[in-house]
Design goal:
The complex is a heterodimer of chains A (332) and B (124). With 332 residues, chain A is mainly alpha-helical. Chain A contains 15 helices and 2 strands. In chain A, strands 1-2 form a two-stranded antiparallel ribbon. The chains are: A mainly alpha (332), B mainly alpha (124). At the A-B interface, helix 2, helix 5 and helix 9 of A face helix 1, helix 2 and helix 4 of B.
């Protein structure tokens, strides 16, 4: 069920586009309305999600450190694993966001000769890193359809990506890489028993969704062929709020676009928000300076302080009666 | 709902929204017109239908190149039964006389950079 339902829902989504575009001729709905809905839901959803996270106070420093913290001058601090200043935190975060530092520490528990042993396991790190970078390059590459004139940087990325200059149109290395990476991430969940056990429908759905986006994009580029100029017209119309749906764009484009829109709508409500979350992990983005600086809990209640002289002045008479010595007299 | 660290959060969110919506900002006001192509005066039909040529001309040219270079086969018989010489400069550019005003209009628009002209010379 955890695998079948996500799979079937992707299947249904694709059928919906086919019927909608191919049979019912709803080009305006799938080409204009749904993309706008998607980008609005994506942006508003992400803002609300980040706002929700930011409403949780983090009064104290709770970084998970993996190195020597700042201490005596003759003990060397591990500045990236236990940062104590803002630049060091930025370095640590950059390492985390760009290179997935913490996943690099991934270990695998194994029973060898009835002893439990932990070994280094870099495959998930490698697959995940390759997947995310490939995805970034592919998204940036798509900006040739969003920007007019196309900036030189996009040309550079395209020519690097199409370095091999084989097939027609030029084969992109990232197209093959993302297929390999998504397959790896999916097979890992399907084939490793422990990971299969903890995988949920919400883990499979984005994988299937991204997989079908990749497949539809590859089909459109290499096999079925579409009119790129008309697609850029449609997207240019969306971006400049001049609604136009050129005739004669293949159905596969609408499948691709609709699945991307579904991804955008699904994004803020799913595990995919780790895109924003990675920036806001308190165990990573806080400096380890608990002892250097005083951190005051923001929701500490205001305590009404009453000093001893105040107490004494209120009960002076009774204290004298009970022969309790007064501080006032001592000081005199 | 109190937002903690609202300065940093706000800055990050503004950066995020600006990044995502940046194609909108640079496109607003720009009138998106189809690239204008200079159509030939002399001929009124291409070797294949306009729709086919729009999406598949690159494949056709690739097939032409392979069959000319590898099989010495210079004659292309179109789906309507007409025969053409497989040649970019002699057949295609004979009607579409200007590379700048025909080929490159769309290629620049869609950021496509075919390597035709690394071997072929543009005839005047």
């Amino acid at each position: 069920m955890k695998i079948l339902y996500p799979f079937l829902s992707i299947f249904v989504l694709i059928i919906v586009v086919f019927i909608g575009v191919h049979q019912a001729d709803l080009h305006f709905l799938f080409g204009i309305i749904i993309p706008y809905v998607s980008i609005l839901v994506f942006l508003i959803g992400m803002v609300l999600r980040v706002g929700y996270w930011a409403s949780s106070p983090v009064p104290f420093r709770i970084p998970t450190t993996a190195g020597q913290g700042k201490t005596l001058p003759w003990i060397k601090q591990d500045k990236l694993e236990s940062p104590s200043t803002l630049p060091q935190v930025l370095g640590r975060m950059a390492l985390e966001i760009l290179l997935f530092r913490s996943l690099f520490r991934n270990t695998k528990a194994e029973l060898s000769e009835s002893k439990l042993a932990y070994g280094s396991n870099k495959w998930l790190w490698l697959g995940g890193l390759a997947f995310h970078w490939t995805m970034l390059i592919i998204i940036v590459r798509h900006y040739r359809l969003f920007l007019e004139p196309v900036p030189g940087m996009i040309h550079l990325i395209e020519s690097l990506d199409g370095f091999f200059e084989i097939t027609l149109p030029t084969f992109y290395v990232t197209d093959a890489l993302i297929l390999i990476c998504v397959s790896f991430l999916l097979l890992r969940r399907l084939l490793v028993p422990q990971i299969r056990y903890i995988s949920l429908a919400a883990d499979y759905f984005p994988l299937f969704l991204i997989f079908s986006i990749v497949i539809s994009g590859i089909l459109m580029r290499y096999v079925l062929k579409t009119d790129v100029v008309k697609i850029k017209m449609l997207i240019g119309g969306l971006l400049s709020f001049q609604f136009q749906v050129p005739e004669g764009i293949g159905t596969m484009f609408y499948v691709h676009l609709f699945l991307v829109c579904v991804l955008g709508i699904y994004f803020p409500f799913s595990k995919l928000v780790h895109m924003g979350g990675v920036f806001l992990s308190p165990t990573r983005n806080l400096a380890n300076n608990n002892r250097e600086k005083r951190h005051i809990n923001p929701w500490n209640p205001k305590v009404k302080i009453r000093s001893y002289p105040e107490y004494e002045s209120e009960f002076r008479e009774k204290m004298i009666d009970a022969e309790i010595p007064l501080e006032e007299e001592k000081n005199e | 709902m109190k937002i903690y660290d609202s300065g940093k959060i706000g800055l990050g969110l503004i950066f995020f929204i600006a990044l995502v919506t940046f194609p909108f900002w640079v496109s607003i006001g720009g009138n998106k017109q189809m690239p204008e192509l200079k159509m030939p005066d002399s001929a009124h039909e291409c070797v294949e239908s306009k729709e086919f040529m729009r999406t598949n001309h690159m494949r056709l040219l690739n097939q032409w190149r392979d069959s000319v270079v590898r099989e010495n086969n210079y004659i292309y018989v179109s789906s309507t039964g007409k025969s053409y010489v497989k040649s970019l400069t002699k057949t295609c550019l004979n009607c579409h006389s200007s590379k700048e005003e025909f080929c490159e209009r769309c290629h620049t628009y869609a950021s496509v950079r075919p390597y035709c002209w690394s071997c072929h010379l543009e005839s005047e």
